[in-house]
Every structure is written in structure tokens, then in C-alpha cells.
# Entry
Amino acid sequence: MAGKHTLTIIKPDAFGAAKAGNIIALLEARGFRVRAARVMHLTKQQAGEFYAVHRERPFYGELVDFMTSGACMPMVLEKPNAVVALRDAIGATDPAEAAAGTVRKLYAESKGRNAIHASDSDDNAGREARFFFAETDLIY
Ligand code: CMP
# Structure
């Protein structure tokens, strides 16, 4: 069965533009509840490790630079079928293709500076939650 939790990151573009409150309000209005949250400035090593799956992609260096350009806000969100529901709520990677009312349509500038991350599977949601939060922060 699909899980109740997923991992999101309000990225440095949106966090730096003081859009975190608006984005959290949008997600709460869509039924998500924040179950863990922190504000942090990723190191190159952390960003590189988090996005290691994209290491061979041409945009990897740009992605690591962007994700380390300022503070960001990782959060664990809860909702039934959380992974699919969050991907729906944030919209396509490219804001030009994102549906109306989605986080990326409203707040993203480009494919790279795209405001928010969402886990793409239950397995990755668990792995990514543990990347940012201690086991003791994840008692729901
Ligand atoms: P995210 O959902 O966090 O996961 C991978 C990220 O890679 C993606 O969001 C984008 O920020 C980034 N990305 C994907 N495609 C491109 C691209 N063509 N150019 C720059 N960054 C990209």
C-alpha cells in the first residue's frame, strides 16, 4: 500500500524569496500536514550526496550549486498516498509545463530553479527523510 509520508524541500530560490509560508499554506490547503521540518544551508557534499542519482547528468553541477546557494527547508509531509499527492500538488519539473495552481506554476522560474523537490517513490521518501532527519524526529 502507498505510504502516508513523503519528503519535500522548499529550495533556495523559493525560500530566499520568502515564499515558504505561501507554499506550506498551499500544501496544507491540499490536505498535507507537516510532520518534521528544518531550515538548513546544504554543503556541497550534502547536496552532491542527496542528488547522487543525477551525478552523470549534464545539469548535476548546476543543481549542486543551486541547492547550496542559500538556505532551504526540508520537510516530511503526511497525507494518504503522499508521494503521488505531492507530485500532483507541485506540478511538472518545468514550470512552463506545470498545471495551474501547482507550486511550480506559481513559484518556479525554470527547470533548474524550480522552487520545490518531492520524493519520487515510497522507498526514496523513506531514504530522503532519513537523510535530513534523525530517527527520533520521525516518530509520527
Ligand atoms: P528535483 O525534483 O529536486 O530533482 C532533480 C532536480 O534536477 C530537479 O528537481 C531539477 O531541479 C533538476 N533538473 C532537472 N532537469 C534539469 C535541467 N534540464 N536543467 C537543470 N536542472 C534540472
Summary: Residues 5-41+72-137 form a domain with the Alpha-Beta Plaits fold (CATH 3.30.70.141). The mean pLDDT is 97. The chain has seven helices and four strands. The longest strand covers residues 5-10.
